[in-house]
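Quick start: read one record
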Amino acid sequence: MSDSALQTYWRGKLETVQAVLEDNNFKVWIADSLDQAATLFWSKIFDQVQPQSVSFGGSMTVVDSGLYADLKKRTDIKVLDTYDTSAPKEEFLERRRQALLSDLFITSTNAVTKEGHLVNLDGLGNRVAALTFGPRHVALLIGRNKIVTDMDQAIERIKDFAAPANTIRLNKKTPCVKTFQCEDCSSPDRICNTWTITEKCNPPERIKIILINQDVGY
């Protein structure tokens, strides 16, 4: 299948997912690339929300989009940098607590089902906490590779791909680093602790989603 055919195929899939997400009260746009997703973020989300404070939940998509680096350069808003691993442990945790009171929280999701439900598994819980309640607005950048059929497929994707891949990226000492699949471990480095399923967005359009017609993120 040619690249153009693939783009057309995935565009149709994304439009279907967009419709069900909007039925579930999410605000949704579609971008043809990660670069276009960043452009949409600035024009459709940042400029409309006009946040005074911004923070992040763990997401390679956000980093790869350039949004993290660009926001860090701004002097007109407060940026709570939760990606700074050099911070002492207490400051590391406090930034994540303060992030729950930010005007705009930016992250991704582990999976989105064809029913328009967001499925996430978190280590510390700050990312899923922000999705659920706290920040005034939440922006999600979601690659097409995160789309799954149902909850069973979402759980399989997270436990047998996203979680092991992230433990490798974060240099964690967990069994899945070697077996490449979830072992339901008791390691102190375990990053699989809290599940959330977001079926509807409440208040409506608090969570704003950019679906990306590209495989990005874990």
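The CA atoms of residues 34 and 183 lie 33 Å apart.
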